[in-house]
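Q: Could you write out the predicted structure for this multi-component system? I'm mainly interested in how the pieces pack against one another.
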Amino acid sequence: MEYILMIIGAVLVNNIVLVQFLGICPFLGVSNKVNTALGMGMAVVFVMTLATLVTATLQKYILLPLGITYLQTIVFILVIAALVQMVEIVLKKISPPLYQALGVFLPLITTNCAVLGVAIKVTEQELISGHGFSILDSTIYAVAVAIGFTLAIVIFAGMREQLELVDVPKGMKGVPIALITAGILAMAFMGFSNLV
Amino acid sequence: MSKWNILTKGFFKENPSLILVLGTCPTLAVTTSVNNALGMGAATTFVLLMSNIIISLLKNVIPDKVRIPCYIVIIATFVSMVDLLIQGFAPALSASLGVFIPLIVVNCIVLGRAEAFASKNGVWDSILDGLGMGIGFTISLVLIAAVREILGAGAFMGHQFIPSDYNILIFVLAPGAFIVFGFIMALVRHILNKVEAKRKAKLTVQK
């Protein structure tokens, strides 16, 4: 039950993009078509889960015991950048179809602040009260957050496909109108705010 | 390009967040109040300036193939410094900016300037570029934060002047960030288009 509540909280109530403002760059950049948005979402699920698993393990067994948590930012960003490169190489060898589907999005994910943001966030707060810092909780939380990202970007892409057909004032074209649409979508997500 | 141009191009013409649409996450997240916006702007400007200086000095030493990881390490060093300094000297600011201080590492503006400017230019030009871009980023943050704080909390820099019964709460919440950012971006683009059109008209008249 605790896990179900945590997952609902991460996907809907505290949606990573629309409530916490992480990962806005891909949210605006790769949301022109529903299919590419879905591809990006899948890539984020894949990388975020792996990255959080690795960084949470590092935090628990290396940074915390040695008392060097002030190196967290440097260690995490390097691990994530290296991990994304490695995932790209491994996928290319092992599963070409999966690489075809996710490959173009992988380099973009290194600079996706959502991945680093979640990796840091899970070390700062207790996800389920009483559990303390746990690798399992962190990883499940990362999966849920990534699903929330996918949900938001796919809905947003659907709206932007319709926006293409609309006559918008010249200064508003492109990003500004997309941002205002995202604002209205965020308003809709506020409806979930007291769910958990 | 003159020195003055290098400094001022970041203010409006190539404003990192309003025109180039980089660093959108902090722009949306920390603009709930002008004080937060100034703090974030100062922290980003410091990191931008220092990383630009170091990268422009080391540009002939860093091998081309591993330049991105090198840049990231340099940037992350300064971000950790800023993080610890803010935690030590401004704990309230550190609490309200939260995770967005360490996230300056993945702010596309910093890495973007390192790649596009500091790795190709001398140290003085890089200093001007870093300062200009940082100030431009701060200007856009403060603009958005001012609108959101005045409409949403009825206050400016923490001084309340509209009674809280008449505040429009939505502007300090998440949707308000997107909407205000969208409208300010549209306004700035509109003004720049107008200015550009006027300049062109003047040129054709002179010819």
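A: Regarding packing and overall arrangement: The radius of gyration of chain A is 18 Å.
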